[in-house]
Hints:
By secondary structure, the protein is an alpha+beta fold. It has helices at residues 13-16, 26-36, 47-61, 90-93, 96-106, 252-255, 258-261, 266-272; strands at 38-41, 76-79, 111-120, 146-152, 164-165, 205-206, 214-218, 223-224, 234-242.
Amino acid sequence: MATAATTTASQTPAEQATPWLKGRSFDSWREEYDRRGFVIFERVLSPEKVAAIRAALAPHLARDLKGRNDFEGLSTNRVYALLAKSPVFAELVIHPLALAFVEADLGPSCLLSAFLAINLQPGETVQPWHTDDGGARLPRPRPALGVSTFWAIDDTTETNGSTEIVPGSHLWDGRRIEGASTLADFKSRSALDQDHDPAFRTDAVKLAMPAGSLAIAKGTLWHRGGANRSDRPRLIITPQYCAGWIRQLENMCLAVSPETAEKLPERARELIGYSIHPPFMGYVDGVHPKKLLRAQPA
């Protein structure tokens, strides 16, 4: 199985992704990604890596904190700011396969917008339909201003709440999809009946994939978390990225302390905000933000 260690810094992001492209060219995968709005790569992570990630998450999931509204999921555990929780998560953020697609859409000055684990408990209902870069109030159709990645830590199946997407919807205009999220979905309210799904769509597909797999989706793609009709939780980790000039969903420089940031790989530091979007967006007191850190790259 290919690992990140087989890549070198001198390679382009697309070249670094080669070990996971299954003999196809990156351009071929990119054409599929641009056409459908998403791609899936199965078993990118080894079982040992998946186990290490699960172990790092265990103490945080043990708190059993549930979502506050229909969007977060009233029967869902969410663990935010993962880079502040354990260094094991940094590998997911800077994985060459994910970054190849992220940088192809957003450029090398992109930022990590959010980084969280989502653990759907049995009985969780469907999430409202939404797009992950919808906070950018710019007319559609337009290029994606964000890219979301979904790492399966558990097998995601037809019944345990795998993410549902509408292929090709990233190309739609500004029409509202039935069942799209509204401000009311972010307010505290009672859970819906698990079997009540007024926003069911026949053109939607579920991102069913084995543990260790990676799905990559454009920020303009309509999607939602599915209902968990199984008797076991469904755990994923989702690093989400945005263009370098877009405000991040998570305030990464507050979520991740400077002391923790100093110990992260250089590319991870850049992604949380210790970087510049050309020509000088992101400076601190007139200088590059990395100068505030004690650990400087060689």
